[in-house]
Write a structure and sequence with these properties.
The complex is a heterodimer of chains A (164) and B (252). With 164 residues, chain A is an alpha/beta fold. Chain A has two domains: 83 residues, Fe-S cluster assembly (FSCA) (GMP Synthetase, Chain A, domain 3, 2-Layer Sandwich), CATH 3.30.300; 69 residues, no CATH class. Chain A contains four helices and nine strands. Chain A has a four-stranded mixed β-sheet with strand order 6-9-8-7. In chain A, strands 3-4-5 form a three-stranded mixed β-sheet. In chain A, strands 1-2 form a two-stranded antiparallel sheet. In chain A, α1 packs across α3. By secondary structure, chain B is mostly helical. In chain B, α4 packs across α6 and α5 runs antiparallel to α6. Classes of the chains: A alpha/beta (164), B mainly alpha (252). At the A-B interface, loops of A face α2, α5 and α7 of B. The structure holds zinc ion. The site of zinc ion has 8 residues of chain A, from loops.
C-alpha cells in the first residue's frame, strides 16, 4: 500500500466522520454528502454535495471538514461543493438509516422513485414504537429535509427524513 | 454602498431572471415567518423560502461567473436597483392574505416544475446540475401548495371566496412566466411553449378538485423581464437591501 492510498483512506475516514450539524447522529459519510476525496501533490481535495440547494448546514460542514483534516495534520485542504449528480436519499447508508431511527427520526423510504405529485404517501413507521399507524401533519418540518408526522398508536409526533 | 453595473449578456440576463424570481419570491414567503396561520405552516413557508433562496444563490453564483466582472452572489442580490431586476411581476406583488400567498406559490410552482424538468436536459452542464436539484424541491412546493388550493377551494364559503379572488388576481401575471427566451440562449434553456401545456394540465387537475374556475386568458401583465416593475419591488428591495447598503460587506 502506497503512502497516497493510506492517506486517502485516512482522509476519507476523517472527513466522513464529520456530522451534520442539524442531525448530529448522522455522519456525512452515512448521509451520502461526502462524494469524493483526492490526495495529491497539491494537497487534499474533498467533494461534498448539498442535500438541498438552500441547506444552511453546507458551510458548516465544509468548515468542519477543513478543521478535522487540519487537526490530523493535513494542511492544504480544499472542500468543493458539487451539484451533479443530484443528491438522493438513496445514498444514505443502512448504518445511517439505523442511526436516524435511533435518534428519533423516521428514515426516508428506501427507494426515492418518482412520487406521484398528489396522492397517498408511503407507509411511515414510528421511530419510537414501530407502529405504521401514522399520519403526516405537514410536508415541512423543523428543517428542509424533514416532514412532520404523528403516531396514532403511541401519540408521539416525530420527524421523518423526506424522500428526495 | 453603490449600485453595481452588470456586464450584461443574454445568458447573464436569463440566469438573473430565474434567480431574481426565486429571490423575490423567497423574500415574500419569508415575510410570513412568525405570522402564518399555524405553526406547521410557518415552518413550511420558511422552508420553501429557504429552498428558493438556495436556488437563487446557485443561479447568482453562475451568473457572476458568466459575467466575469468579479461580482459575487451578494453583489447581484444586494447591489442592484429595481430596474436592474429581471423577475416576473407576479413575485413582487405584496404577499396579501394566506390564500393569495398559496395561490401564487401554486401557480408559480406549476409553471416552474416543468421548466426545471426541461432545464435538466440543458447542454449547459451547470444549468442542468442546478435544475436537477431544484426540480426535486419544487415538486414538494407544488404538492404542498396544491393540497392547500384544494383545502381552501373545497373548504368554507370564506376560504373558497378568498382563494378564488386570489386566483383571479394572479392569473393575469402568469403569462410572463412563459415568455420566449432571447434567441442567443434559446438552445440552453427550455422552450416555453410545451411548458404551458404542463402548467395547464396541473391547473386543470387541481382546480377541478378544488372547485375553482380557471380564469379566461385575457390581457397579461408584463415588464419584469425588461426591468419595468411595479412600485412594490422598490419598497421590498429597500427592506431587503438596507443592511448591505448601509453597512457594506457586513457579515455575521
Ligand atoms: Zn409510535
Amino acid at each position: 500500500m502506497s503512502v497516497t492510498t493510506l492517506d486517502l483512506a485516512r482522509v476519507r475516514a476523517i472527513a466522513g466522520a464529520v456530522v451534520d450539524p442539524e442531525i448530529p447522529a448522522l455522519s456525512i459519510a452515512d448521509l451520502g454528502v461526502l462524494r469524493d476525496v483526492r490526495v495529491g501533490d497539491g494537497g487534499v481535495e474533498v467533494d461534498i454535495t448539498p442535500t438541498y440547494l438552500g441547506c444552511p448546514a453546507m458551510n458548516v460542514i465544509a468548515w468542519e471538514v477543513e478543521a478535522a483534516l487540519a487537526q490530523a495534520g493535513f494542511g492544504d485542504v480544499r472542500v468543493r461543493l458539487v451539484l451533479s449528480p443530484a443528491w438522493t436519499t438513496d445514498w444514505m447508508t443502512q448504518a445511517g438509516r439505523d442511526a436516524l431511527r435511533a435518534y428519533g427520526i423516521a428514515p426516508p423510504a428506501a427507494r426515492a422513485g418518482r412520487r406521484a405529485l398528489f396522492g397517498a404517501d408511503d407507509e411511515t413507521q414510528c421511530p419510537r414504537c414501530g407502529s405504521v399507524e401514522t399520519e403526516k401533519l405537514s410536508e415541512f418540518g423543523s428543517t428542509a429535509c424533514k416532514a412532520l408526522w404523528r403516531c396514532t398508536a403511541c401519540r408521539e409526533p416525530f420527524d421523518q427524513f423526506k424522500c428526495l | 454602498m453603490t449600485t453595481i453595473a452588470v456586464a450584461s449578456t443574454p445568458l447573464v440576463e436569463a440566469l438573473l431572471a430565474r434567480a431574481d424570481d426565486a429571490l423575490v419570491h423567497a423574500h415574500r414567503l419569508s415575510e410570513w415567518c412568525g405570522h402564518a396561520p399555524m405553526l406547521e405552516e410557518d415552518l413550511a413557508l420558511a422552508n420553501v423560502a429557504l429552498d428558493l433562496l438556495g436556488q437563487a444563490r446557485s443561479l447568482y453564483q453562475y451568473a457572476a461567473e458568466v459575467e466575469g466582472a468579479g461580482h459575487s452572489e451578494d453583489d447581484l442580490a444586494y447591489r442592484r436597483d429595481a430596474p436592474q431586476f429581471r423577475n416576473a411581476l407576479i413575485f413582487e406583488l405584496p404577499r396579501g392574505d394566506f390564500a393569495e400567498t398559496i395561490a401564487r406559490l401554486f401557480l408559480a410552482s406549476a409553471a416552474m416544475l416543468p421548466w426545471w424538468q426541461a432545464a435538466m436536459e440543458s447542454p449547459d452542464a451547470r444549468i442542468a446540475a442546478i435544475s436537477a436539484k431544484a426540480e426535486k424541491e419544487v415538486t414538494y412546493h407544488l404538492r404542498h401548495a396544491g393540497e392547500w388550493m384544494i383545502r381552501l377551494g373545497d373548504g368554507t364559503e370564506e376560504s373558497h371566496a378568498r382563494v378564488a379572488a386570489a386566483v383571479a388576481k394572479y392569473w393575469p401575471y402568469t403569462g410572463e412566466l412563459f415568455e420566449a427566451e432571447h434567441p442567443a440562449v434559446a438552445a440552453l434553456l427550455p422552450d416555453p411553449a410545451p411548458l404551458r401545456a404542463a402548467f395547464d394540465a396541473t391547473v386543470a387537475r387541481v382546480f377541478a378538485e378544488a372547485g375553482l374556475d380557471r380564469p379566461r386568458d385575457g390581457w397579461m401583465q408584463k415588464g419584469g423581464r425588461r426591468g419595468v416593475h411595479t412600485e412594490h419591488l422598490g419598497h421590498m428591495l429597500a427592506v431587503m437591501q438596507h443592511l448591505q447598503r448601509a453597512y457594506p460587506g457586513a457579515v455575521w
